[in-house]
Structures are given as structure tokens and as C-alpha cells.
Amino acid sequence: MIDRQALRHNIQAEVGRLKAGCDLFMVVKANGYGHGAAQVARVAKEAGASGFCVAILDEALELRAAGFNEPILILGVTRPQDAPLMAAQKISATVAATDWLAEAAKYLALAPTKAPLRVHLGLDTGMGRIGFRTPDALKTATDFMTTHSTEFIFEGIFTHFSTADDPDDRYFKGQVAKWHALVDTLPHRPRYVHVSNSATSLWHDACNDNLVRFGVAGYGLNPSGEAIPQTPYPLEPAMSLTSELVYTKQLHAGESVSYGATYTAQQDEWVGTVPIGYADGYERRLQGFHVLVAGQFCEIIGRVCMDQMMIRLPQAYQRGTKVTLVGRDGDQTIRLQDLADYCGTIHYELACGFTDRLPRHYIN
Ligand SMILES: *Cc1c(COP(=O)(O)O)cnc(C)c1O
User: Fold this and answer.
1) Which residues, in sequence order, are bridge partners of residue 271?
2) At residue 49, does pLDDT exceed 90?
3) Burial class of residue 137 (count of CB atoms within 10 Å of its CB; 0-12, 13-18, 19+)
């Protein structure tokens, strides 16, 4: 279940604390971190987002097809062959190399529409992923766009921080210094100058400049996990996950459950079957973790199967009884962060890993 009110709260709170003239683009890559890209984009727009970021061209096209006319920035590297399509759809491309521009220029010159491509130059200041790394390389790119002004609009420039969610800010400060050493050499600033993901805007908002790429915190998840618990406003998680008991039985002492027979009952006990498994993105590593039934923690016993798993119940419950895998039931809560801790990963990975087989219900 996706709580639109939580999304609205987080995004409005963020928009409300940005300096005048600073825009927020909601990051809706990976199907809106598993929450549903178009649904999230709709709420984000109402809450004050003026554009969107995605990772790949297909995600940008999905938003255009859903009727969004706002600016869309693709954060990853695209194919130069797709430059005319992006130009025609007014989708902005991240460019990390001048030879990309040279190749794209050829395709753009041949395109019947003659629309210019909007470009955001990516700078690598220490993330080590994509981007220009030296003032000379950056100048070559901006000069190329100046001499090819029919093909390109130099719309933005940005970098990405790798440790903005770390209480130790030494590496972060080094990246900020490298960013200035590059961006301050520009003779003209483009429309959008941006460095901030969620963590940067929450904890280092002095460097925001005029655009924030707001992702995980918009979904109500702390970008640092639990490393920096303080946030400027409370984050409200939008995603919860519930299922129901489809089958219950009493297991006798000595009887085993699931593949590999890794769990054997020590005494007579009630067991429920829940129709969810790793093909839904509910990780196999969650064996031994718990869910909530009637406000009580129930252990996941035996291996998590592809489509089903078993839990130990404190008593008999009827088929159809609600099972909460993520969210609140009674006085107890299971957070995505708790699942992530158990699996040794981060909530980002689990949220975007829930597959299409799980229907998303939108409330509020
Ligand atoms: C995914 C991504 C973001 C959003 O990051 P969050 O931590 O979810 O806020 C911002 N910028 C870039 C370049 C990204 O890849």
C-alpha cells in the first residue's frame, strides 16, 4: 500500500524549506523506488515538484506517455542514437564525455525535427561513476556546445556526492572543493546548477544551488539508514506491505517446513502460510525474520519460497487474517529499515526490488 499523504508530507516539507528560486525535481527512477513512477510523479507535482529525474530513457518516455510535460532529466548515460528522440520529447540528457556530444550531434543534424537536445553536464568530483573530471575536459564540452548551438541547449551542470549521508563530512568537503574548482571556471552558468540528492539537501543544504534532486527522503526513508537520525522534518514512510494467511495448520513436534527441511518443530505449534515470496521481492534471506499478525511478531520459519512462505503463529488464526510484512499493526511496527538491517542491505534496494506482481494500492 502506498500512502499518498506521506509522499505529499515529505515533498511539501522539503519544498517548504528550500530557498526562493531553488527547484525540486522528484527522482522517480526504478518505478519511483518501487512506489509507482507515474503515481508518485502526480503527487510530487501537486506537492511542489517542478520536474522529475529518472535513470534511463524508457522511464522518461513512460512519464511523457502518462502526460507529464515538466522537465525530465535522465541521470544515466543514454545512447547518442537516441538524442533526436530525447530532443523531440524535451527530455534532458546527462552528458559525461565530449565524444558523446560529437556523436549525438551527427544524429541531431540528420533528424527531421531539428529540435535541440537539452544537456546537463555531469561532473565527477569523487563519486567515480560518470562525469568530466578536469577543467580542460569541461571546457572542451562547453566549447563544443557553443559551436553546435543548433543541436544543443546547455541547460544544466551537476555533480553527485558519495558520502552526503555520512556523519563524517571530510570526503564530502573534498568533493565540494572539487565541484567549485570545476564549475567556477564556467563563463556562463546554465539554467540548472545542482549537487543535492536527499542527503545533501537534508544535511548540507547550503550547497543546494538552484535545484535539488529529491529521491529517497521523498518516500519517507532516511538516506543514511540510521547513521544520522535527525532530519529537518519527520520523514513519513509511504510504503507498507500486507498480505493474509491463506492456509493454517497445526504442526506436530518433529515435523519440518519448506525446502531443505531447515526448520523442525520442537513442539506442537500453529503454522500459517503467506502467499508471498522472493519472486515478489520478499528476499529469501528473510528466513528467521518476522511479520506481524494481530499486533504480534511471528517468525518466518523455513526457507522463503518463490511464491509462499510459512510463519509460526502463537495460536490458531482464520484464513484471511491480515499479515503485515512492512508497516504498523497494533502497537508494533516493522520498518523497511528493519528488513534491510536483517538482510545486510539498504532500504533503497528492498523498496525498488518489490516486483510488479505485488499490486500497489494507493490511499489518501
Ligand atoms: C538516485 C540519484 C539521486 C537521488 O538520490 P536519493 O539518495 O534517493 O535522494 C540523485 N542524483 C543522482 C545522480 C542519482 O543517481
Assistant:
1) 249, 312
2) yes
3) middle
Report how far ligand 1's centroid is from the alpha carbon of 27 (Å): 7
Non-local CB neighbours of 338 within 8 Å, separated by 6+ positions: none
306 marked ligand binding residue: yes
**Which tens digits make up the pLDDT trace of 145-167?**
999 999 999 999 999 999 999 99
Atom of ligand 1 nearest to the CA of 165: 7
Residue 244 pLDDT greater than 90, yes or no: yes
In the block, cell 522537465 appears at 71
Ligand 1 first shell, C-beta below 6 A: 27, 29, 75, 160, 197-199, 213-216, 223
Q: How is 226-242 classified by DSSP, letter by letter?
A: TSS---SS-----B-EE
Residue 270, domain CATH: 2.40.37.10
How many separate domains does the chain show?
Answer: 2
Does any domain span residue 351?
yes
229 occurs within a structural domain: no
pLDDT digits (tens, 9 = 90+) for 88-131: 999 999 999 999 999 999 999 999 988 999 999 999 999 999 99
Structural domain boundaries enclosing 121 = 2-219
Q: Report CA(215)–ligand 1 centroid distance (Å).
A: 6
178 with 256, same domain?
A: no
Q: What is the DSSP letter of 115?
A: P
Q: Is the pLDDT at 41 greater than 90, yes or no? A: yes
| Residue among 28, 74, 75, 165 whose CB has most ligand 1 atoms within 8 A, to mutate | 75
Compute, in angstroms, the gap from residue 213 CA to the centroid of ligand 1. 6
Q: Is residue 230 part of a domain?
A: no
AA letter at 72: I
Instruction: Confirm or deny that 4 is annotated as ligand binding.
Output: no
Give the integer Cα–Cα distance in Å for 142 and 272.
62
Cα radius of gyration (the chain): 24
Which sequence positions are flagged as catalytic? 29, 259
Query: Which atom in ligand 1 lies closest to the alpha carbon of residue 201?
Result: 9
Mark whether 272 and 205 lie in a shared domain. Answer: no
